[in-house]
Amino acid sequence: MDYPSKLIEEAVTQVSKLPGIGKKTALRLVLHLIKENKESTFALTEALNKLRSGIQFCKHCHNIADAEVCSICASHKRDRSILCVVENTNDVMAIENTAQFRGLYHVLGGVISPINGVGPAELKIESLINRLNHGQSEVKELILALSPTMEGDTTSFYIHRRVKDLQVKVSVIARGIPIGGDLEYADEITLGRSILGRTLFN
After folding, report:
1. What is the mean pLDDT of residues 167-189?
2. What angle do CA 26, 91, 54 make, to 5 degrees?
3. Model pTM?
4. Is residue 70 part of a domain?
């Protein structure tokens, strides 16, 4: 593709690195930004700069946060006896949108996938075990809300094995989520019913 400007070509190259954005879509976005007034473009740039420099990860649950502790962990309205284990922040947002869960979360940062070189050590599993082992831990139930894939099931099995001697009930979300699907793309009703209809892990 020939570009009328090296600046446009460079911008298209960078934008096309975003997931789901090809060169043609990137070009449309770049041309749109050029047509916008400079203030709008600079506002976008400033927001992205603030995002990269200011974003943090909660020291308790590892969810994306604006401060050392995320708003969910800091809330006194959450049920601290239930801890929901998820793969990433997208899953936290999906479950929160159901308005069916009022407990806390633990974000693993992925799932065990040997083929991709991801083992337990690359995930936030040890910090989960530390949370459960903490002397003042109030957790009575651990919900494994991982996507129903081979990798998700492997991760659930591994965590279940690690916590089986602790005084905590381990459950999984009901399989209203289709096998091979991702929580992020599940509709809110199905996901909400899956949370409410969770079962013991076997």
Report:
1. 83
2. 65
3. 0.78
4. no
